[in-house]
Amino acid sequence: MTSRSVQELSMSGQEVPQNYIYKDSDGGSFDASLLLMEIPIVDMALLTSPSSSKQELEKLRSDLTSWGCFQAINHGIETELLDELRDVTRQFFALPEEKKQKYSREDGSLEGYGNDMILFENQTLDWIDRLYLTVSPDDQRQLKYWPETPETFREILHQYTKKIEVMTEVILKAMARSINLDENSFLDMHGEKATLFARFNFYPPCPRPDAILGLKPHADGSALTVLLQDKQVEGLQFLKDNQWYRVPIIPEALVVNIGDQIEIMSNGIFKSPTHRAVTNRESERISVVLFSTPNSDREIEPLDGLVDETRPRLYKKLKDYPSFFFQYYQRGERPIEAAKV
Ligand code: OGA
Ligand code: NI
Prior knowledge:
Blueprint: H1 6-12, E1 41-43, H2 44-48, H3 53-66, E2 69-73, H4 79-93, H5 97-101, E3 112-115, E4 129-136, H6 153-178, H7 185-188, E5 195-203, E6 213-218, E7 224-229, E8 236-240, E9 243-246, E10 254-258, H8 260-265, E11 275-278, E12 285-293, E13 299-300, E14 318-319, H9 322-329
Parallel strand pairs: 1-2
Antiparallel strand pairs: 2-10, 3-4, 4-5, 5-12, 6-11, 7-10, 7-12, 8-9, 8-11, 13-14
Helix pairs in contact: 3-6, 4-6
Bound molecules: N-oxalylglycine (OGA) and nickel (II) ion.
């Protein structure tokens, strides 16, 4: 651990250290003048049913080329499981600090419990504590970081992981079909099985929501991201055409967004959207995020069918994208810039 948890900081009532504060925050408030236009909703049941899927595929393509994200409904994951996952997440972060520290991230490792990683001097810190775990394939799990309290944590995470694996495959196939590619085009670049990481985010109440962010603006280093929002407290925002949009809470929905690696594979057709999490003065907020990514030894590049004279190749061939993600993230820069030809 680099320093005390943000939760302890939040509860101490002390003045916030300067390195959390944005000096040039959006003219004063991260909540100012947000448009009420909502991010698209995609009915997953329609994506899988052949009869009605043509129209829905076209909607998916248009949502993902314009927004890069959507709220997925009718995804087939039981509401009970989503609620249980939210419950065990809250229960884990409610444990006394010394219990959580048993799962602390070690230097040089991404996995485990901790707060924002400090890589540079003058870095503005995120108002967040989190737990980061590799969840799939099963043999890559490092169980020493998996909480044993609450007792059901591991089992619920296991069940949820299996469901998200299925869901991401359905989406990646539909995305490929929506741009007239073979349905396995994106999946084939993942290797035999995608790697999945889980990130449990905990945003304590924040005394300066006007000048402090829970997560700085970023695009995900994944191929595809599936996020379970808090049931009560909003906080996620996406950037579109230079304007920030709130993501309203739909308790039974999952928020899906494109990550940089699909932007690369699709040669820029699908955009990996910039997003951030704002903080809240009164309430704590949680989210559970699953990042699906190709195996670290797989090379990815724009798909053959998507490169031609009218659409020249935008990105280089590369592998293990998440390994250099944080060097850029902490500078507020986009790692995808490094992938451009
Ligand atoms: C992330 C992320 C947003 C949220 O973990 O990459 O964007 O609402 N989270 O927690
Ligand atoms: Ni993100």
